[in-house]
Amino acid sequence: MTRQLHLNAFLMTVGHHEAAWRLPESDPFAHIDVRHYQELARTAERGRLDSLFLADSPVLWNSIGRRPAGGLEPTVLLTALAGVTRHIGLIATASTTYNEPFNLARRFASLDHISGGRAGWNVVTTAGLDAARNFNLDELPSHRDRYERAAEFIDVARKLWDSWADDAPLGDKANGRWGDDSKIHPAGHVGRFFKVAGALNVPRSPQGHPLLVQAGSSADGKELAAKYADAVFTAQQTLEEAQAFYGDLKRQALAAGRDPDHIKILPGIVPAIGATEREALALEEELDRLIKPEYALRQLADTLRVSPADLQLDRQLPADLPAEDEIEGAKSRYTLIVELARREQLTVRQLIGRLGGGRGHRTFAGTPEQVADALQHWFENGAADGFNIMAPVLPSGLTAFVDHVVPILQSRGLFRTEYSGNTLREHYGLARPAVILEGA
Amino acid sequence: MTRQLHLNAFLMTVGHHEAAWRLPESDPFAHIDVRHYQELARTAERGRLDSLFLADSPVLWNSIGRRPAGGLEPTVLLTALAGVTRHIGLIATASTTYNEPFNLARRFASLDHISGGRAGWNVVTTAGLDAARNFNLDELPSHRDRYERAAEFIDVARKLWDSWADDAPLGDKANGRWGDDSKIHPAGHVGRFFKVAGALNVPRSPQGHPLLVQAGSSADGKELAAKYADAVFTAQQTLEEAQAFYGDLKRQALAAGRDPDHIKILPGIVPAIGATEREALALEEELDRLIKPEYALRQLADTLRVSPADLQLDRQLPADLPAEDEIEGAKSRYTLIVELARREQLTVRQLIGRLGGGRGHRTFAGTPEQVADALQHWFENGAADGFNIMAPVLPSGLTAFVDHVVPILQSRGLFRTEYSGNTLREHYGLARPAVILEGA
């Protein structure tokens, strides 16, 4: 069989474009209505997508004026989606900086049981002082410390997921012995950030380990991904950048002793789909027209660590911006934005338009055929194992992708026409991990 | 209308009796199967019960031999139950000692949105060194400290739930103004245990505050309940004890400036229901016969802080047990067990039988009529506002209660025949709290 694409639906409120909520078709309160997400999940499953995904950060943005603000907690929301779907994988973002491993490992194992093996965890370290200040801290922990904590957090979570052998439960009614205590292996973890003594209080889940996803593209982020990630979401603007990232990460995975094929790399794409190219461009233009630049300007200034007064809408970025290594959060996104602006000599207004569509992810307007071509081109040229589909408007953009782009990819033999497995790991072609005991 | 009973279904694996899983009818793995709980939730809703409830502790018991061990995390599991029910309240236990307020307030607000206003939180401080050792601690924090943290935790959670005014979201497409920033009130909390600066990242939920439940009956527990709880679950063995507890807590609520009618007190009852009294007793005897005493003996010794060798099955408890104020966890349960054994001069074997049925909660075997009489007697004699129904075997014990006891209570005018409200607060006759701003 031809090598197959992996497709993930990245769901965000009523669309990834920041002005999507202002369209006549959009319900501005859909992002707190579980039925909106249930409809999206059913649509993505109808398209036989591998998974759907929810981003998250434990903080409220500095303004609720700009776009639908706040949202439902992802592990809880995905549980509601598990009930209305049967196959599609369910990936929730959760922070290693602001959670405890025991609690989070338990929730993901629970979601894995409830969904029949469809849980995935997008591991984030959570940039931003505002989040730190919701968790007893006055300062953001350093980038390096956050990533060291993330690595140790995953180690602890794996110990907990492996703390029950698959055959620990017996259910032996006759002898009154429900389980075999010798098959329980307490975590016994003592590290720099965590001490976790016991075994998890839930039996091993269908996937053993929920799928691990990583989405930071800094040096620390790639190091973490190379060691642990089953899938990687990344923002890449050009084929060349995507190829470089792809090759680099696969090499790092190999160097870390892993099969490079066991880490699936999915760049994001924001496809504006139209029956004609003109219709697609018109949608993109309508959305950009609805952006209010004052919000975006303030966010851009925050990201660039400058004052909003330093940015002028019809000029290019100031020349004297800080270097990436002076940035303590969202390093790779910072560099991507600066490089995009410099490379294309964008004014601040143009840059805001580009970011408003996909927050640094690649945007693409075209017909279903053109979108399919764009995906296939990267997929066949060493830039991607699949894609993170970020519809600019939801649900309509996902429906268009499923109804018009997916059939083209299927007809080209690049994408499944039916699910062949039941678990998220199976969709991504990854084995169920065996229990690995320390020292065994 | 006659004063109405409130009924909560306390769900636990395949029943509250520790040997329930050994019955031929029981699926020993049902406690990790969401369909089992979905069936129970539908049954409880068919009976028009106010709510269902899940206990929890972030620790695996010291043996998985005794009974079905581990379980699905309650906020996640209740989300799955929200999807198959429309009215019944959904109450999850979560620890204030081993969570962060921002994360937990968010999850309960999310469940409240997803369920249309049916979320409740049973606030626990989590006794036991084993749990502490899963969260970076070498020692269990003192009882007093745990309760002080719990009170501050609830204060922070309420600030977060009130951090969005109900009218903060605008959805004003024409002016591109999704929400009104002046209606956001950051928590700005600085206390002994927590610093939480920001507003919650989810709009205010249907109930405003999820229902707050408290279940510890120690002096500290009652103080917390009197101040904060909307409902209280409690273990009471005799009418006199239950009356004393009921009167005491209502007085404390009044002293704390609250309307005593706004704190609903629900003692637990483990009803073994039979078509005849003989049949009910036979079920109870069959269950007790299936208890393996070695597990229960070890647990009893742990609870009493003695060695298992100090307990002899056919003798009474040793005379020289510690006083309650020397106990750092589960104080009130300790005293209840010791007093039960002393009052009824039970041997250790008999005590184990009583505890195996309901872990200190009142057990009662009888016909539906007798069970209804028992509930009505306490309800009409100042001992209860309703009951926590703890079926010894699930699902059969809940089905029997709903099909045979509930209709009797309804025919006596003591219990609703249809839901009159949509939210959990409405079922319990409690108002939706207004946003309370500091200093306002």
TrEMBL record, chains A, B:
<dbReference type="InterPro" id="IPR011251">
    <property type="entry name" value="Luciferase-like_dom"/>
</dbReference>
<keyword id="KW-0288">FMN</keyword>
<dbReference type="InterPro" id="IPR036661">
    <property type="entry name" value="Luciferase-like_sf"/>
</dbReference>
<dbReference type="Pfam" id="PF00296">
    <property type="entry name" value="Bac_luciferase"/>
</dbReference>
<keyword id="KW-0503">Monooxygenase</keyword>
<dbReference type="GO" id="GO:0004497">
    <property type="term" value="F:monooxygenase activity"/>
</dbReference>
<comment type="similarity">
    <text>Belongs to the NtaA/SnaA/DszA monooxygenase family.</text>
</comment>
<feature type="domain" description="Luciferase-like">
    <location>
        <begin position="22"/>
        <end position="383"/>
    </location>
</feature>
<dbReference type="InterPro" id="IPR051260">
    <property type="entry name" value="Diverse_substr_monoxygenases"/>
</dbReference>
<feature type="binding site">
    <location>
        <position position="218"/>
    </location>
    <ligand>
        <name>FMN</name>
    </ligand>
</feature>
<feature type="binding site">
    <location>
        <position position="93"/>
    </location>
    <ligand>
        <name>FMN</name>
    </ligand>
</feature>
<dbReference type="GO" id="GO:0016705">
    <property type="term" value="F:oxidoreductase activity, acting on paired donors, with incorporation or reduction of molecular oxygen"/>
</dbReference>
<feature type="binding site">
    <location>
        <position position="56"/>
    </location>
    <ligand>
        <name>FMN</name>
    </ligand>
</feature>
<keyword id="KW-0560">Oxidoreductase</keyword>
<feature type="binding site">
    <location>
        <position position="217"/>
    </location>
    <ligand>
        <name>FMN</name>
    </ligand>
</feature>
<keyword id="KW-0285">Flavoprotein</keyword>
<feature type="binding site">
    <location>
        <position position="143"/>
    </location>
    <ligand>
        <name>FMN</name>
    </ligand>
</feature>
<dbReference type="InterPro" id="IPR016215">
    <property type="entry name" value="NTA_MOA"/>
</dbReference>
<protein>
    <submittedName>
        <fullName>Monooxygenase</fullName>
    </submittedName>
</protein>
<feature type="binding site">
    <location>
        <position position="147"/>
    </location>
    <ligand>
        <name>FMN</name>
    </ligand>
</feature>
